[in-house]
Amino acid sequence: MIDLSQLDDNTAERILTTIARARSRSQPALPPLADIQPALTGDFHVAPSGARTAGGDLARQALTVLAEDPATSLAIESMAAEEDSGRPGAFDGGATIALGIAAYFALSTAIEIQRDKQGKWSFKLKVRPASQAAVTKLIEKLVNYLPG
Questions:
Q1: Are 140 and 41 in contact (CB under 8 A)?
Q2: What is the number of H-type helices and E-type strands within the chain?
Q3: Contact call for residues 30 and 93 (beta carbons, < 8 A)
């Protein structure tokens, strides 16, 4: 098993965006990015710390959550073993936004996302207790990564 905390920033971001790109075809519509941070802070009582989360840190934590699924863990290990081609990825132009969206897709595997009749987004944890700490840490990193 690979130690995800040891992945360099580029590798972690590459793997996360690859997984998000593959899974985004089957995910429900993404809430506007401007709505994600306030909803997460309200539903999970996580306040922005004022310290901005680095993209690599966000990607590593999202991969930690995703790796709790054995099949996804194998895919992550396989991609981590590959050499980076050095070519810019499809998300290169909007890397900051893309990474936030990729982390959102990782988060959506562990939380239930709903929109009420008034258009307000809400997030409810749907994970095993063992992984709740990893998901909470991802929420904290995402809140401090997104502009808000």
A1: no
A2: 6, 2
A3: no
How large is the angle between the packed helices 70-81 and 55-66, nearest 10 degrees?
140
pLDDT bucket at 56, cuts 50 / 70 / 90? very high
C-beta of residue 132 within 8 angstroms of C-beta of residue 64: no
Question: Where exactly are the structural domains of the chain?
Answer: 4-145
Q: Indicate the length of the chain as a whole number.
A: 148
Q: What is the pLDDT of residues 106-141, one digit of tens each?
A: 777 777 777 788 888 777 777 665 578 888 888 888
For the stretch 81-92, pLDDT in tens is 886 655 544 444
Q: For the residues of 63-102, what is the DSSP string, one character each?
A: HHHHTTSHHHHHHHHHHHHSPP--S--TTGGGHHHHHHHH
- CA dist., res. 25 & res. 123, Å (int): 21
- Residue 103, burial from CB neighbour count under 10 angstroms (0-12, 13-18, 19+): buried
